[in-house]
């Protein structure tokens, strides 16, 4: 069972995420490496929202391979190369989490860049493995 932690006696999160997540009766933890928006044909989509949508689709595949899914996400760490990319990333994240029963913890950081200049978003997740 996953439980989003959003205490009523502190300021609420800025967006669609929880301050923390508690996991009980789980079978373990899975973490991913940071994922960049590289399609299987080697192309990189333009814009933060398109890049984040591709990354989240790729994360779905990694989660499946690990025996879990987005319903078991505990934490999202995301990185963008500028404030102008935050809205696009957040739109893709919110769409990816739209049907999830609990909200994961989330951190979004602005960084100076990635391995190639066309990448503007990188995302990594931590998920619980169902018992």
From TrEMBL:
CDD domains: YjgF_YER057c_UK114_family. It comes from Pseudooceanicola atlanticus. InterPro entries: RutC-like_sf, YjgF/YER057c/UK114. The lineage of its organism: Bacteria, Pseudomonadati, Pseudomonadota, Alphaproteobacteria, Rhodobacterales. This is Endoribonuclease L-PSP. Gene3D superfamilies: RutC-like.
């Amino acid at each position: 069972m996953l439980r989003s932690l959003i205490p009523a006696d502190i300021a609420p999160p800025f967006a669609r995420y929880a301050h923390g997540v508690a996991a009980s009766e789980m079978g373990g933890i899975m973490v991913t490496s940071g994922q960049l928006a590289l399609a299987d044909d080697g192309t990189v989509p333009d814009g933060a929202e398109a890049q984040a949508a591709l990354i989240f689709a790729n994360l779905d595949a990694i989660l499946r391979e690990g025996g879990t899914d987005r319903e078991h996400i505990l934490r999202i760490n995301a990185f963008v190369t500028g404030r102008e990319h935050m809205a696009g990333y957040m739109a893709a994240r919110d769409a990816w989490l739209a049907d999830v029963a609990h909200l994961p913890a989330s951190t979004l950081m602005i960084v100076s860049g990635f391995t190639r200049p066309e990448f503007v978003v990188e995302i990594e997740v931590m998920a619980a493995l169902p018992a």
